[in-house]
Amino acid sequence: MITNLAAGVQAFTSNAFLVDGDRTVLVDTGANFDVVDGLRANTDDLEAVVLTHTHPDHVGNLETVVEAFDVDVWGFDPSQPGVDHGIEDGETVQLGDHEYVAVHTPGHKDDHLCLYSREAGILFAGDLVFQNGGFGRTDLEEGDRETLIESIDRLAERIDDDFAEMHTGHGPSVSTDPAKHVELAGRMARQM
């Protein structure tokens, strides 16, 4: 089961997805709200935090989550503050009941990862792509439009016909034809 603990929060934050199952993991911690209470209301056994990237809105609650649950943090770049273990491009990570392949997708931030489970048909897209063709900002430090387009293309090559759910770093998750939203993001990024 996947629960967005930031749903309804009226603060500047990313989504924070609790993925429950064989290995209970929080994908991104969000910022500026009490995610620990939300976690405690949904699980007694948080086993890890996995980060799509280390922008402040995605890691603002990281320290309080680590203190409350004594968990390790996984992300692409272990030299980033708070990241205990690196996840390499193409590496497999268990979230909940499924194995996800990590896809290094820079362009919004150098350490950006997407996580895709072909078996489950689920993608955690971070800030690479959003609903209705939205895509990550490239005007921040480490942002680069051409690199972002290449990352969207790499991701689009990995997803298949069974792709059913896309959980994004901001805004609503997509459960109706998410591949079209990824394709549209690639087109929109090229036009702007």
TrEMBL record:
Cofactor(s) named in the record: Zn(2+)
Protein name: MBL fold metallo-hydrolase
Alphabetical list of Pfam families matching this protein: Lactamase_B
Keyword Zinc: yes
Gene3D superfamilies (UniProt xref): Ribonuclease Z/Hydroxyacylglutathione hydrolase-like
Residue intervals of the Metallo-beta-lactamase domain: 13-167
TM helices/strands, residue ranges: none
One GO MF term: hydrolase activity
Organism classification: Archaea, Methanobacteriati, Methanobacteriota, Stenosarchaea group, Halobacteria
UniProtKB keywords: Hydrolase, Metal-binding, Zinc
SMART domains to which the protein is assigned, alphabetical: Lactamase_B
Keyword Amino-acid biosynthesis: no
